[in-house]
Amino acid sequence: MGMPRVKAKKQSQPFRKPRADAERNRGRILEVAKEAFSRNGANASLDDIAKQAGVGAGTLYRHFATREELLQSVYRTELEKLAAAEQKFAQTKPPLEALRAWLLLFVEAIAAKQLIAPALNTLLGDPKKVFEDSYAKMHQAVRALVKRAIESGDVRKDLDPIDLLHALVGVANVAASPDWKPRAKRLVDILIAGSRPAK
Asked: Which of 2, 15, 35, 106 has its CA 20 to 30 A from that of 99?
């Protein structure tokens, strides 16, 4: 009587656990890889990444067959988090606060891109082509947030959402100092203030 119960237990576990484990492993690898590529560039050791993520090299290669694939996935994940945040902020914050929160997150995404971009450029030549779909989702997200803020009367009707992104990217590109990120975050508040309708 005891044996069938043990067998049933063994059969039920593999179907649930590997999926959750695989998802967790993938997320952990991406997190560790982002840090490693930011520190060491395109040549960061994949074996070290696997070790720090707490997985074997085989597990890493099962998820990401090549270094290029891992780099692309790290950056695409950052962009997708940004696009997905629009929905969350739109549902949980008033229009202007949602726009501000999203722009602050965009600053974080620029930081990730600056860290990862040299490695992407080394491997991909023109990363923009690879991430066209992700960029489109990001533009769609900021347009939706600005539209909502215009409709609520919180920002001027002539505000171009892409101008906000260009201003923040510009600060990141011209700032030689490591403190560009706090500057960019301060600029978010200046941009928000400047976007308000004239009284």
From this structure: 35
